[in-house]
């Protein structure tokens, strides 16, 4: 299985694909019952602003996840602006990460995350809601494997956060 990622900033077709499956992503988050995701969706007047920020903000990196030539998910990597009290700012944050349901549990998400970490070498933070145990388990596994166990994890305010350093890919060396 060949998994790859590509920047969607300059591809109208890739951007449209992300927008077309964004509703699936929001539905997968709706189960969290946090009150945050009910305002985003197909009828949200701010959705255009959300995507405009993704695709034009130089602090964000929208990525398409591919299996072969097929689009199967997306990710949004951002640069955190303000660190939490007492913490050093991370270089990168996994702000959004989605693999379509029919492609989950096949290694695609793990492989895509690895490619993303290698592409953006530096200090990372990943945050999941405790109410989403599948997401917490996925990121714990991926981060532990990628970092060979060299990461920190904290929990507060209903969130779990992993922090670790990624390394540049061999292709970048």
Judging from the principal axes of the Cα atoms, what is the shape? globular
- Biggest sheet strand order reads 1-2-3-4-5-7-6
Major sheet: 7 strands, mixed
CA radius of gyration: 16 Å
The structural class is alpha+beta
Oligomer: single chain
Arithmetic mean pLDDT: 85
Number of strands: 7
Continuous helix count: 4
Question: What is the percentage of strand-forming residues?
Answer: 25-35%
**Helical coverage, percent range:** 25-40%
- Distance, first to last CA: 25 Å
Order of helices and strands: EHHEEEHEHEE
Poorly predicted ranges: 36-42
Could you walk me through the main structural features you see in this protein, from its secondary elements to its overall organization?
- The protein is an alpha+beta fold and 173 residues long.
- It is 32% helix and 29% strand.
- It is built from four helices and seven strands; from the N terminus they run βααβββαβαββ.
- It has helices at residues 12-30, 47-56, 108-119, 133-146, and strands at 3-7, 60-67, 70-78, 92-99, 123-129, 151-156, 159-165.
- Strands 1-2-3-4-5-7-6 form a seven-stranded mixed beta sheet, with helices on both faces.
- Strand 4, helix 3 and strand 5 (123-129) form a beta-alpha-beta unit.
- The radius of gyration is 16 Å and the shape is globular.
């Amino acid at each position: 299985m060949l998994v790859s990622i590509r920047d969607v900033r300059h591809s109208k077709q890739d951007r449209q694909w992300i927008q077309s499956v964004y509703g699936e992503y929001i539905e997968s988050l709706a189960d969290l019952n946090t009150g945050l995701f009910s305002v985003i969706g197909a009828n949200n007047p701010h959705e255009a602003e959300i995507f405009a920020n993704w695709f034009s903000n130089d602090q964000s990196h929208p990525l398409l996840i591919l299996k072969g030539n097929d689009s199967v998910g997306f990710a949004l990597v951002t640069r955190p602006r303000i660190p939490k009290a007492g913490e050093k700012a991370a270089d990168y944050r996994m702000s959004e990460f989605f693999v379509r349901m029919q492609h989950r549990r096949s290694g695609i998400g793990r492989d895509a995350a690895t490619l993303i970490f290698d592409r953006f070498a530096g200090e990372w933070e990943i945050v999941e809601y405790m109410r989403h145990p599948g997401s917490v388990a996925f990121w714990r596994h991926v981060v532990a494997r990628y970092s060979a166990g060299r990461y920190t994890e904290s929990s507060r305010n209903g969130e779990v956060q992993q922090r670790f350093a990624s390394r540049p890919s061999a292709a970048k060396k």
